[in-house]
Design brief:
Blueprint (H helix, E strand, L loop, with lengths): L1 E8 L2 E6 L2 E5 L17 E5 L4 E5 L5 E2 L4 E2 L3 E7 L7 H13 L3 E7 L6 H16 L3 E4 L3 H8 L3 E6 L5 H8 L27 E3 L2 E5 L13 H7 L22 H7 L5 H11 L5
Parallel strand pairs: 8-9, 8-11, 9-10, 11-13
Antiparallel strand pairs: 1-2, 1-4, 2-3, 4-5, 6-7, 12-13
Helix pairs in contact: 1-5, 1-7
The structure holds guanosine-5'-diphosphate (GDP), magnesium ion and zinc ion (ZN).
The site of zinc ion (ZN) has 7 residues, from helix 6.
């Protein structure tokens, strides 16, 4: 049978298949596959023996938290307390693009801004929409619920941005504490964090406080460049142009002309200039 691992405790792998959970073991590393199963892995398992036989190819995986096959990320983006940060938003989008995770931007705390302040925010946000990113507000609960169907979704964003508040509105059963530092689904009373996918609406949800320490030095600069998806629209004379100081770079030109949001370009340069190992 095929299923997805939603939780691992010691050597017990909880595999979800056809809305049923099976507690499976795994004989060390899988035979013929030098691989240790992760939460999120799709596996072939024997439901009578309760043994995982094969880990299917991963679409992506993350190190912290250790999790595989994330389809989409809802980036909880507070507009105040903590302040709206395009820098963090661009970092998270780049991170998700590199991992081949679909991006959904969810704005919170719109109620704390004046009409003028909100218009300014939306000027920027409209740019992200024009790139094809979905944008929702934390008031659009029904829209968000629909987005979860059939997907494995990670909720992430700055502490205090309103992640737990939103998750509670989506499913009151989760009953998460709000206004508290680093409480997350699955953390409970234990200090060591258990990574767990929560079932909802035929989809699975992962709540994680960080990706806070987003370490970009592990990535190739070319992958970071390509994660700024609008750059692909404007080919440069040099095939391998990094858009820094190359002659006749179309990206630099488009930034000057205001076609590309200046802050996006600035944040791009910041990411590729970080010290590398
Ligand atoms: N005004 C306002 N406050 C919010 C909103 N969403 C969350 N909050 C508040 O912001 C604080 C932090 O929310 P919480 O959900 O714990 O954030 P988390 O750290 O991302 O899980 C809490 O006091 C919430 O009540 C919102 O849309 N508007
Ligand atoms: Mg929280
Ligand atoms: Zn260029």
């Amino acid at each position: 049978m095929k299923g997805q691992i939603i939780k691992i405790i010691h050597n017990t792998h909880v595999v979800l298949s056809d809305s049923k959970c099976y507690e499976c073991s795994c004989r060390g590393k899988i035979r013929n596959q030098n691989i240790k199963p992760l939460v999120g892995d799709y596996v072939i398992f024997d439901k009578d023996e309760n043994v995982i036989e094969e880990v299917l190819e991963r679409k992506n995986f993350f190190n912290r938290p250790m999790v595989a096959n994330i389809d989409q990320a809802i980036l909880i983006t507070g507009l105040k307390l903590p302040d709206f940060s395009l820098n963090l938003l661009d970092k998270l989008i780049s991170w998700m693009e590199i991992h081949k995770v679909e991006v959904i931007i969810c704005l919170t705390k719109e109620d704390l801004l004046s009409k003028e302040e909100l218009d300014k925010v939306y000027e920027k946000i409209d740019y992200y929409k024009s790139l094809g990113y979905k944008v929702v507000s934390n008031k659009d609960i029904d829209t968000i619920k629909k987005l979860l169907v059939g997907k494995t979704t990670v909720f992430t964003g700055q502490t205090g941005a309103g992640k737990s508040t939103l998750l509670n509105k989506i499913n009151p059963d989760w009953d998460l504490k709000t206004g508290e530092v680093s409480k997350a689904l699955g953390r409970g009373r234990h200090t060591t964090r258990v990574v767990e996918l929560f079932m909802f609406n035929g989809g699975k949800v992962l709540d994680t406080p960080g990706f806070s320490a987003l370490d970009f030095t592990q990535f190739d600069k070319i992958d970071i460049r390509d994660s700024f998806i609008e750059f692909r629209k404007y080919p440069c004379p040099f095939k391998d142009c990094m858009h820094i100081n190359e002659k006749e770079c179309s990206i630099i030109k488009k930034v000057e002309e205001g076609e590309i949001l200046e802050s996006r370009y600035r944040h791009y340069k910041k990411l590729i200039n970080q010290d590398r190992r």
